[in-house]
Specification:
Radius of gyration: 27 Å
CATH topology of the largest domain: Glycosyltransferase
Strand order of the largest sheet: 1-9-10-11-12-19-16-15-14
CATH architecture of the largest domain: Alpha/alpha barrel
Mean pLDDT: 96
CATH class of the largest domain: Mainly Alpha
Low-confidence stretches: none
Oligomer: single chain
Number of helices: 20
Distance between the termini: 44 Å
């Protein structure tokens, strides 16, 4: 198979392409699949992300986009959203003024597109045939540099197979781009073009700025044109500005079967980290051009080698799942900026515009665990992002009549609530969106994510300097969020929405009440710890927050009276849930996704028992120490029959809970739904971007689920593997409190080794309850 893949490409590209296990391949061009593949094959380098649109154009279904972390704008949109920035990829090609776009010709042969996950490179090859019979082979290679995240490049090979003559080219930077280009009701242009020039005769440059805040963005591109012998064959270029498009024209005389190699080198810089975007682009472009594409590519590949040495997961005996898990890891680790604690991970990563590039609770509970265990320095940035926006969270709480800090349901760069109160469906239907009003459990998720970061990394300095403030402010919020029911002598949370968004608002959602109680109890626990072990810090906190024994006692008494619905038996998701009209799920589609029972179709979702996603089961997963195994089994069995998993967050949770309660078959079914959510497009919305939560949840399902990795209550690393029979071995690496450990899991054994050769402290760990030691 790998030979068949490589045979589509020339010798130089063949030598670059990795082994088949590292490849995602598209072997047939179907225009209706373009938008999904633009997301699937999208690249990111920590600073920017790029959809896999065709640089040569010609396709009718396309949403080209280049997104940059932290570049948000509102303008006429419902909310601040990640702005689509100028498209630097375009390289238009013509022969006798006829374009070479992917759909501009009569016939397309030998099409293949290959995403090389090991190296972070996208390859493409095909032959176009005109109505008159002219055949032209086009081969491409694209990457966004991990070595210098301001840079990106595309190499194009063009070979006229049965003719020759004069070819014309346009090296373009398109400043006319919009968000939601194919949704007229949502379409917004977020940038104004300020300046277009020839970059001191180097190429093309376009300066733009966001319309709301005036953040400047510089985009520069140059071309380097050679023959296969490496000789420069570009004789002249002509630069022109067309409205908001910067364009370089050049032409080449090619003989039959003569191949030309066009390298398009680009630099994208913003005012977020550059004082002068023009000078920054000019400097980067000159250095890029001087060292050449091949040199930058080599450094880029080295960076991906370093990343994979920490993040790879080898799964022997299940080739398709191996490919899917690697794909999820690839997209996860490629997205966040390792040098920036002012940005987060959007729900659709950097490959689509759905949800505006906003961070949700997805980060803390689905994405962050992956980084905690593999890239702790990135994990720290993600939790510091929440700390940096703590003051805004406090403001959000005050504006809603609460104390402490209330984190927004959707967060961009300012910390304001970005979830719109009203929204419009594509058909024009306008409806009220209550998510931000009632879905407050995100605040507990932020705290839990921070706590888990500290638990995995051992970063007590962060906890003392920053984390404790998140903890105390969120605890204050929850204390103010509860109301006392005098008749029932208990504290309750009324008018709230849990993870299951199809029931809103409700009273006493079990998930929310339990997480809120945990948040308050954890704050009390840390205050008690610091009072004894860190008296100076404790006194400082008492002064800053007005903490005294009276307040502590008040919080303790409130916590003791919180209505948590139940701790055993079947737990009602919220008050009144068991009275809803109900029928269990008994049909599934071709992707093994459950279908709404026929008798409940079309009914108000608030009035029926069917859930959008895991709620009580999510609670069991997060708080497994609070519920015995029988209770977890009872609730999994009950809610499993009533959950449609219409959120990509849900299947991975049911996978791990299925493993915990012994339902191995359903667990694997859910792993497939999570891991293949974008590769198989089983939610039907991959065109809108890659599902960050399912990517993180899939990694958790293998590592925390099948490999049974966890931290015991006494802080010891522990494993209780439950490998599938067809999985002969799982191998992965983790960062555990400053040490990199290599883990190998077999059917009947597990090995842990320390990667560092330096003499460190002994590391204790447990396998199925039995303690072992690494010297």
């Amino acid at each position: 198979m790998i030979k068949m893949i490589k045979d589509h490409f020339n010798k130089e590209l063949r030598e670059l392409i990795s082994a088949e296990e590292w490849l995602i391949v598209r072997e047939e061009y179907m225009p209706e699949e373009n938008l999904a593949y633009e997301s699937l094959f999208g690249l990111a380098n920590g600073r920017m992300g790029n959809r896999a649109a065709f640089e040569e154009g010609g396709n009718k279904k396309t949403l080209p986009a280049n997104y940059i972390h932290g570049v948000f704008d509102k303008s006429e949109a419902f909310m601040r959203e990640l702005a689509n920035t100028p498209n630097w990829l375009e390289l238009k090609m013509y022969y006798l003024r006829e374009p070479f776009g992917i759909e501009d010709n009569q016939e397309l042969n030998d099409f293949i597109s290959v995403l090389d996950m090991k190296k972070g490179i996208l390859f493409r090859s095909y032959t176009v045939i005109t109505e008159s019979g002219r055949k032209t082979k086009i081969e491409k290679m694209k990457f966004l540099s991990r070595a210098n995240s301001y840079l990106g490049a595309v190499r194009t090979y063009i070979t006229p197979l049965n003719y020759g003559g004069l070819f014309e080219f346009e090296n373009r930077i398109d400043g006319t781009v919009t968000n939601f280009a194919d949704f007229p009701r949502f379409r917004v242009k977020h940038l104004d073009t300020l300046e277009i020039n020839d970059l001191e005769a180097e190429g093309a440059f376009l300066k733009s700025e966001t319309r709301d805040f005036g953040m400047e963005i510089g985009t520069a591109a140059v071309v380097d044109v050679k023959n296969l012998a490496g000789e420069d064959i570009l004789k002249s270029k002509q630069f022109r500005a067309f409205g908001e498009i910067a364009c370089e024209f050049f032409d080449l005389e090619l003989q039959k079967k003569e191949t030309v190699v066009i390298d398009k080198l680009a630099a994208v810089c913003t005012e977020r980290d550059q004082e002068d975007v023009y000078q920054a682009c000019l400097k980067n472009i000159k250095e890029f051009k001087q060292q050449g594409l091949d040199s930058e590519l080599a450094e880029h590949i080295k960076e991906y080698q370093k990343m994979w040495s920490k993040a790879d997961l080898i799964l022997e005996g299940d080739q398709k799942m191996q490919q899917a898990i690697r794909y999820n890891i690839f997209q996860l680790m490629s997205t966040p900026n390792p040098d920036d604690n002012q940005t987060n991970v959007g729900a659709k990563l950097l490959h689509g515009e759905e949800y505006g590039g906003h961070a949700f609770w997805d980060t803390e509970l689905f994405v962050l665990p992956f980084f905690n265990w593999t890239f702790p320095e990135i994990a720290k940035n993600l939790v510091e992002y929440r700390y940096n926006l703590l003051d805004k969270a406090k403001e959000n709480a005050r504006e809603n009549g609460y104390r402490g800090a209330k984190y927004p349901w959707e967060s961009a760069d300012t910390g304001d609530e970005e979830c719109p109160a009203w929204t419009i469906e594509p058909d024009g239907t306008c409806y009220r969106c209550y998510v931000a009003d009632y879905e407050h459990h995100v605040t507990a998720a932020v705290t839990l994510g921070m706590a888990n970061y500290v638990k995995v990394t051992g970063d007590q300095r962060f906890m003392k300097e920053k984390g404790i403030h998140i903890l105390l402010e969120t605890a204050k919020f929850w204390v103010s969020r509860f109301s006392y029911n005098q008749e029932k002598k208990r504290y309750e949370i009324l008018k709230v929405t849990g993870p299951d968004e199809w029931h809103e608002p409700v009273d006493n959602n079990a998930y929310t009440n339990h997480l809120a109680k945990w948040n308050i109890d954890f704050a009390l626990e840390k205050l008690k710890e610091y009072r004894k072990a860190e008296p100076a810090l404790y006194q400082k906190l008492c002064q800053q927050y007005g903490i005294d024994q009276k307040l502590i006692k008040c919080w303790q008494q409130l916590s003791e009276k919180i209505y948590t619905v139940a701790d055993q038996g079947l737990i009602e998701q919220f008050e009144g849930y068991f009275e809803l009209e109900c029928e269990t799920i008994n049909e599934w589609d071709q992707n093994k996704m459950p279908l709404m029972p026929e008798s409940l179709k079309g009914k108000d979702k608030n009035e029926i028992c069917i859930l959008k996603q895991a709620d009580v089961v999510m609670l069991m997963f997060l708080m497994d120490d609070k519920f015995d195994l029988e209770t977890q089994q009872t609730n999994f069995d009950y809610y499993e029959k009533r959950t449609l998993h219409r959120s990509s967050l849900s299947p991975s949770i049911h996978c791990m809970m299925g493993l915990r309660v012994g339902d191995d078959q359903r667990a694997y079914d859910y792993l497939e739904r999570s891991a293949y959510v974008d590769l198989d497009n089983n939610q039907g919305n991959t065109r809108e971007g890659i599902h960050a939560a399912s990517a993180g949840g899939s990694w958790q399902s293998v590592v925390l689920g099948y490999c049974g990795m966890k931290i015991d209550p006494d802080g010891v690393l522990s494993f209780e593997p439950k490998l599938l029979a067809k999985w002969s071995r799982v191998k992965y690496s983790i960062s555990w409190q400053g040490e990199i450990l290599d883990i190998e899991v077999f059917e009947d054994d597990l090995k842990v080794s320390r990667r560092s050769s330096t003499d460190g402290q002994k590391i204790r760990y447990r396998v199925n309850g039995r303690e072992r030691i690494i010297n």
